[in-house]
Design goal:
Length: 220
């Protein structure tokens, strides 16, 4: 990596590294623009991490820790000074390791940076939920308001009342069907299709299934 000469008047706009010899680096001189998105690329073993983490980050962190009081420094680990002739224009630095923070597939940038709880609070207090089907805003209503709306919308129609019994569970669920019949619940839905619980479908034991029970039928 070869640095290019800069005018003295714009020196503060660059990070100037001279004679970097950390790990795989061999007296490297390089100039990096400040406040820009910079990509350091190269083949494996060319010194990318040595420059980014073990030189720039290490020196930025070391200088920041040295600026703190002796009392504060005792609680912080200080990195070793990198093998380098000089580094100019460097600000305090932070580092995000390339290694995964968690093996949980549900981990996101928000969970890793611990801002997810604040985002949840923001969405709950400020966000306006909308129906994914019709796009209308969802508003808070009382039980009586919901009942009145259902009666108004479906007056004169026959409706069925369903209750979820199984969600995404493996098994044949033969005993469950038998129990429904004994309790007087003779019909429902199995994996989204209507079924007779007195003659239930044969379910694959190793597959996951959804089962809903029809509690009643009403004429509004």
């Amino acid at each position: 990596m070869n640095g290019r000469g800069k005018e003295s008047g714009v020196a503060e706009e660059w990070i100037e590294v001279k004679g970097a010899r950390t790990h795989n680096l061999r007296n490297v001189d390089v100039s990096l623009p400040r406040g820009k998105f910079v990509v350091i690329s190269g083949v494996s073993g060319s010194g990318k991490s040595s420059l980014a983490f073990d030189t720039l980050y290490a020196e930025g962190q070391r200088r920041y820790v040295e600026s703190l009081s002796s009392y504060a420094r005792q609680f912080l680990g200080q990195m070793k000074k990198p093998d380098c002739d000089s580094i100019e224009g460097l600000s305090p630095a932070i580092s995000i390791d390339q290694k995964p923070e968690s093996h949980n597939p549900r981990s996101t940038v928000a969970t890793v940076t611990e801002i997810m709880d604040y985002l949840r609070l923001l969405w709950a207090r400020v966000g306006l939920p909308h129906c994914p089907e019709c796009g209308r805003e969802v508003t808070r209503r009382t039980v009586q308001e919901i009942v009145d709306d259902v009666l108004w919308r479906f007056e004169g129609h026959a409706i069925a009342i369903w209750s979820p019994a199984v969600r995404n569970r493996k098994g044949t669920h033969a005993d469950l069907f038998k129990g429904f019949v004994e309790q007087g619940f003779l019909a429902g839905k199995v994996n989204g299709r209507e079924a007779d619980f007195e003659n239930p479908p044969d379910l694959e034991k190793n597959l996951r299934h959804d089962i809903d029970v029809r509690l009643d039928r009403l004429l509004l």
